[in-house]
C-alpha cells in the first residue's frame, strides 16, 4: 500500500514570458513505512512539492493519491479535512502555541478531532513519552530548548496516528546536538513503521533516511 502516489505533477506560476515551472513532471511513490528525504538546491521545487504533498496547495496538472484517496480534485474544505486526518506536520520553526503547556499543545489535534478529555490526556502523555519529554509536560514552549520544542512538535504530529509525518527542514533551527536528538526520534519512529517524508538541505540529516529524492529545476534526478 502506497501512502503517496504522485503522477506527472506540474505546477506553474505566472503566465506567458514570466511562467515559472516550479514542478515539471514529478512522478514518485512512497510506500507505507518508508522514510524519504527530499533534497535539492534553492528554487528546485522542494517547498512546492511539500505543499502539494501536504494538501496545502494543488498541482496545475497531474494526480496525487494520499493514502488511497485521490486528492487532486478536492476543494479547499475537503483538503483541510484530509490534512487533519492523514498528515502530521513538523515545521522548521516548531509552531507551538505560546503560553500553553507541552501537554496541551500535544492534546490540541485530538481536541479538534473530538476525542474526549481523558483519552486525549492519555494519548498526549504517551506521545510525549515517545519523544522522551514526560518530565516536561507542564512546561510552556518558552521554558524548553529548541530541540525540546521540536520534540513536542513531533509528539503533536504523531498523536493522531496520521498516515504520513511530513517535516519541512525540521532541524533547520537546531544546533548539532538537538539535531541528533530529533533525528534519533525520526529513526525510532521509522523503526515502528511510521511513514516519514522530510525536506532538508543537510546531507547528514538526509543520510538518516532510507531513501533520498533529489529535485532539480522541478524534476526528480
Ligand atoms: N508563489 C509563487 N509565485 C511565483 N513563483 C513561485 C512561487 N512559489 C515558488 N515560486 C518559484 O518556483 C520555484 C520553486 O520554488 P520552491 O519554493 O518550491 O523552491 P525550494 O526548493 O523550496 O527552494 P528553497 O530551498 O529556497 O526553499 C522557484 O523558481 C520559485 O521562484
Ligand atoms: Mg523551500
Describe the structure.
The protein has helices spanning 46-53, 76-86, 102-112, 117-130, 146-158, 176-191, 203-207, and strands at 2-13, 20-31, 35-40, 61-66, 69-70, 87-90, 164-168, 196-199, 211-216, 219-220. With 221 residues, the protein is α/β, with parallel strands linked by helices. The chain has a single domain (2-219), classed as P-loop containing nucleotide triphosphate hydrolases (Rossmann fold, 3-Layer(aba) Sandwich). A 6-stranded mixed beta sheet has the order 6-7-8-3-9-10, with helices on both faces. A 4-stranded antiparallel beta sheet has the order 2-1-4-5, with helices on one face. A hairpin with a 2-residue loop joins strand 4 and strand 5 (69-70). Helix 3 packs across helix 4, helix 3 (102-112) runs parallel beside helix 5 and helix 4 packs across helix 5. The chain binds adenosine-5'-triphosphate (ATP) and magnesium ion.
Features:
binds adenosine-5'-triphosphate, 10 strands, alpha/beta, four-stranded antiparallel β-sheet, 221 residues, binds magnesium ion, 7 helices, single chain
Amino acid at each position: 500500500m502506497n501512502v503517496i502516489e504522485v503522477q506527472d505533477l506540474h505546477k506553474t506560476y505566472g503566465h506567458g514570458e514570466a511562467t515559472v515551472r516550479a514542478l515539471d513532471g514529478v512522478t514518485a511513490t512512497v510506500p507505507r513505512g518508508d522514510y524519504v528525504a527530499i533534497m535539492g538546491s534553492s528554487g528546485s521545487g522542494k517547498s512546492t512539492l511539500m505543499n502539494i504533498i501536504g494538501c496545502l496547495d494543488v498541482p496545475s496538472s497531474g494526480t496525487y493519491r494520499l493514502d488511497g484517496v485521490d486528492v487532486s480534485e478536492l476543494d479547499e474544505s475537503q483538503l483541510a479535512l484530509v490534512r487533519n486526518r492523514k498528515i502530521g506536520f513538523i515545521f522548521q520553526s516548531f509552531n507551538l502555541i505560546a503560553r500553553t503547556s507541552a501537554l496541551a499543545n500535544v492534546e490540541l489535534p485530538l481536541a479538534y478531532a473530538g476525542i474526549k478529555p481523558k483519552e486525549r490526556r492519555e494519548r498526549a502523555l504517551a506521545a510525549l513519552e515517545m519523544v522522551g519529554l514526560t518530565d516536561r509536560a507542564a512546561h510552556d514552549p518558552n521554558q524548553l530548548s529548541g530541540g525540546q520544542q521540536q520534540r513536542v512538535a513531533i509528539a503533536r504530529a504523531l498523536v493522531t496516528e496520521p498516515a504520513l509525518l511530513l517535516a519541512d527542514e525540521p532541524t533547520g533551527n537546531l544546533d548539532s546536538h538537538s539535531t541528533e536528538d530529533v533525528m534519533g526520534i525520526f529513526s525510532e519512529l521509522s523503526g515502528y513503521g511510521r511513514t516519514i517524508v522530510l525536506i532538508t538541505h543537510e546531507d547528514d540529516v538526509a543520510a538518516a533516511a532510507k531513501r533520498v529524492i533529489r529535485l532539480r529545476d522541478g524534476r526528480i534526478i
